Amino acid sequence: MARPLNLAAARERAHLNAAQLARGLGMIPASYRRIERGERKCSAELLARIADVLGVSVTALYEGEENEVVIGAVVGAERKADLPVWGVATLNGFEVEMVVTGMNVERPSSVADVPTAYAVHVHNDDAAPFAAKGYTLIINPVLPVSEGQWVLVGVRKGDRVLAEIWRYSGSTEKVISLVRNGTVRSAKIKDIERMDKIVEVRLP
């Protein structure tokens, strides 16, 4: 009989809470928690992504595999030197889809101890001059976001999540207010997959 998953134990050994891991996976925390509680099936693809974020092998996510975390810790230490890049330009060249590209950039000291941090290459000038085409953004999804700060917003569009760069302006129970170069946008919270703090901007 197949051994049951024990995602919570593997996550806790990586010193992450459920919300942090969910952000690293590009998921809504509530959706991830359902998987962790066994209320929703975990696909093989998602299982591999969870293992990758935690820096362990897939087998370490099952009950009775605690010793494998020692191996995973080595893998995680090696991955620490590289920051995964998210974001692929769509066919129209203006939108950026939030998916892992398979590329990495050097991990800066600002996110040295943040396993769920990631980078995004800027593909347009919507947020210029703060973030122009060719720039690279360093994102820390763990830090809280305050009004006036620049953020990377993941907006649901059909079955995709698109990355947009805005300055956070506040929120109500149902709406998030965003501003950028004189443009004001009110986005429904139900349409926002993630909103992560931009902690560093690298010029090309």
Which keywords apply here?
204 residues; Umud Fragment, subunit A; single chain; alpha+beta; 434 Repressor (Amino-terminal Domain); 2 domains
Question: Care to describe what's here?
Answer:
The chain starts with 6 loop residues before the first helix and ends with a strand. It has helices at 7-13, 18-25, 29-36, 44-54, 69-79; strands at residues 82-89, 96-106, 118-121, 136-140, 150-157, 160-171, 175-180, 183-188, 192-202. With 204 residues, it is of the alpha+beta class. The model is unreliable at 65-81 (pLDDT under 50).
CATH architecture of the largest domain: Ribbon
Structural class: alpha+beta
Instruction: Please state the overall shape, judged from the principal axes of the Cα atoms.
Output: globular
Low-confidence stretches: 65-81
Indicate the CATH topology of the largest domain. Umud Fragment, subunit A
| Annotation, overall tally of beta strands | 9
The CATH homologous superfamily of the largest domain is called: Umud Fragment, subunit A
- β content, as a range? 25-35%
Element order, helices and strands?
HHHHHEEEEEEEEE
Q: Tally the structural domains.
A: 2
Number of helices: 5
Strand order of the largest sheet: 2-1-3-4-9-5-6-7-8
Mean pLDDT: 81
Distance between the termini: 52 Å
Summarize the structure.
The protein is built from 5 helices and 9 strands, in the order αααααβββββββββ. By secondary structure, the protein is an alpha+beta fold.
What does the secondary structure layout of this molecule look like, with pairings?
Blueprint: H1 7-13, H2 18-25, H3 29-36, H4 44-54, H5 69-79, E1 82-89, E2 96-106, E3 118-121, E4 136-140, E5 150-157, E6 160-171, E7 175-180, E8 183-188, E9 192-202
Parallel strand pairs: 1-3
Antiparallel strand pairs: 1-2, 3-4, 4-9, 5-6, 5-9, 6-7, 7-8
Helix pairs in contact: 2-3
